[in-house]
Structures are given as C-alpha cells and as structure tokens.
C-alpha cells in the first residue's frame, strides 16, 4: 500500500489536501501500485466502511430477522459483513448491493444517520422552496434527505444549480464527505464530557426508560405523571412531554426506545446542561431513528432529566 500522503495520482487533484490528511490519519489507504485512484467510483460497502471509521465506538446488538433479510443478506460472506452488522444497530443501512456505486442521495441519507440528525429532515416537510433544479419539492422523501445534508454542509450542489441525486460519487468525493462528517461531529457535539459523565448520562436515561416501560409497564401518560410525582423521580414534566406524549394516543406499541448500546453522541452545552443523542434502529415499523435527551447536573454525577428548553 502507498504510504500516507505519497499517492502517485493525487498531486494537484482538487481533493489532494483532504486525501493526504485522511491517509495520514489512517482513514483511507491506497492501492498496491502506489495510487489512490481518486476518480474511481466508491462502492456502498467501501463508503460504509469509511463511515464506520469516523464514528465513536459502540457495542451494538444482534440484528433482527427483518434487517438480516432486507439489508444484510447481500453482505454475508463478504469482507464488509461485520461493518454492515455493526452499523445496522445504529440504523445506518444502505439499500443496494455492497458492490453498487454509492449515489449522492444514498450518501446524504447515510451521512445524516451517522450524524444522528435524520430528524432534521422534518423541517423541510411540505416545503415549496426549491434548492436544486433537478430536485422537485413533490418528492418529499428526497427533499427531507438532501436539504438537511446540504444545509449542514455535508454535500454541496453543482455550479449549474443541480444536485444530481442519482450520480455515483468518487473515492475523492467520499473522502471529502467523510472529512466534513468528522468536522460536523465536533461542531454539533461540543464540550469535554468525561467518561464518568457519559456513563452517568446514559445510566440516568436508560434506567428511567427501562423502569417505566419494562418494569412498571406504564402505558398511560397520566399514570406516568403520577408515578414520577409519587416516587419523586429526578425527571421534569417537559422531559415527559417530549418523550412520552405518545402515551396519550395509545400508539406505544409502535414506539421503541433505544437500548443505549447504539451510536451515541454526548455534548456539554451549558454550565450544568448536557445533551445525549442516540442514533438507532427502532424495529421494522420505526426504522432508523435519532432521539435526543437533555439532562442537567450540578456535579457531573447525579443527573436530572429535563426538557430541551429548560
């Protein structure tokens, strides 16, 4: 393999700097002949492998039968099989074959999931604003994928005003996208959160969810409010409204909380305020989901579950 920064075919390339830095960091490798082949199409499995290298570590869990049959079957026996299985727990799954070229639309969807920001697409539901000449607002799913990825700087459009959602991306473009993803992770999840704080945050949320959903099997919102009050739990009313309002409408069978061993991002966003974002697979009905919890703590050890605006 070519050593970092010494590829024979990237000098003077428009993405040469990003490729060199990615090689030095160990994100990418070249070919035995000393080239990187920057204009070669990147495959879906190659792109997923790159994404996996940028993400924080997490243990994940065994995929269910639906995921295995629908998304993982094509990767069985391939070098990328474990990458597919690992990312599936975080709801990061491609829709084609491992050897298919990665399209710009598919890349946008995967990058948003990798960032735990798929829900940003909801901001553009029903919009009539047209960002690109070749992307109709009538195609809501594409709009809700491309617009947030574009606004967050993960992908850009072309000078002619198009986005070209079905165009395959090159190895060079993939490197640039992953570099942007890495930078965006640092931007969106700021603050030095210690390992003990991360554990405290995770334990506080997961313990409460497990207690009310699994142990007590509370299914009515009024019962949940009463239980929290009677037991003087360290949980605010705004937190309950943000995460358990579905109990008012008896749709709890369709709502699945994370297991808290999926992809998780931690941020300290104020003197005593923290944010935990979990990107996960929520079952066949729920699909790929990101959920954000807010917490407060005076000492970084005992956490109170609060609402976003508290």
Automatic annotation (TrEMBL):
This is SLH domain-containing protein. InterPro entries: Cell_Envelope_Struct_Comp (IPR051465), SLH_dom (IPR001119). It comes from Brevibacillus parabrevis. Residues 2-65, 127-192 form the SLH domain.
């Amino acid at each position: 393999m070519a050593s970092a920064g010494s590829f024979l075919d990237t000098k003077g390339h428009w993405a040469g700097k990003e490729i060199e830095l990615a090689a030095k960091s160990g994100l990418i490798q070249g070919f035995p002949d000393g080239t990187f082949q920057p204009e070669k199409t990147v495959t879906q499995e190659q792109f997923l492998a790159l994404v996996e290298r940028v993400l924080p570590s997490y243990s994940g869990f065994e995929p269910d039968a639906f995921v295995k049959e629908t998304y993982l079957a094509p990767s069985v026996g391939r070098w990328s099989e474990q990458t597919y299985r690992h990312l599936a727990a975080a709801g990061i799954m491609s829709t084609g074959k491992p050897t298919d070229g990665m399209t710009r639309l598919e890349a946008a969807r995967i990058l948003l999931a990798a960032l735990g920001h798929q829900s940003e697409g909801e901001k553009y539901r029903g919009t009539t604003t047209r960002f690109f000449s070749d992307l109709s607002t009538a195609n809501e799913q594409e709009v809700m994928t491309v617009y947030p990825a574009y606004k967050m700087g993960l992908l850009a459009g072309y000078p002619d005003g198009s986005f070209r959602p079905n165009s395959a991306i090159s190895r060079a473009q993939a490197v640039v996208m992953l570099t942007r993803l890495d930078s965006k992770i640092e931007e969106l999840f700021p603050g030095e959160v210690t390992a003990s704080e991360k554990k405290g945050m995770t334990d506080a949320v997961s313990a409460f969810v497990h207690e009310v959903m699994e142990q007590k099997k509370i299914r009515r919102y009024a019962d949940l409010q009463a239980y929290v009050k009677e037991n003087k739990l360290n949980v605010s009313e705004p937190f309950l409204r943000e995460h358990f309002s579905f109990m008012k409408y008896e749709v709890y069978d369709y709502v699945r909380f994370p297991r808290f061993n999926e992809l998780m991002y931690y941020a300290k966003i104020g003197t005593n305020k923290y944010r935990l974002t979990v990107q996960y697979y929520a079952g066949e009905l729920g699909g790929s989901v990101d959920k954000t919890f807010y917490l407060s703590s005076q000492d970084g050890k005992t956490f109170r579950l609060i609402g976003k605006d508290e």
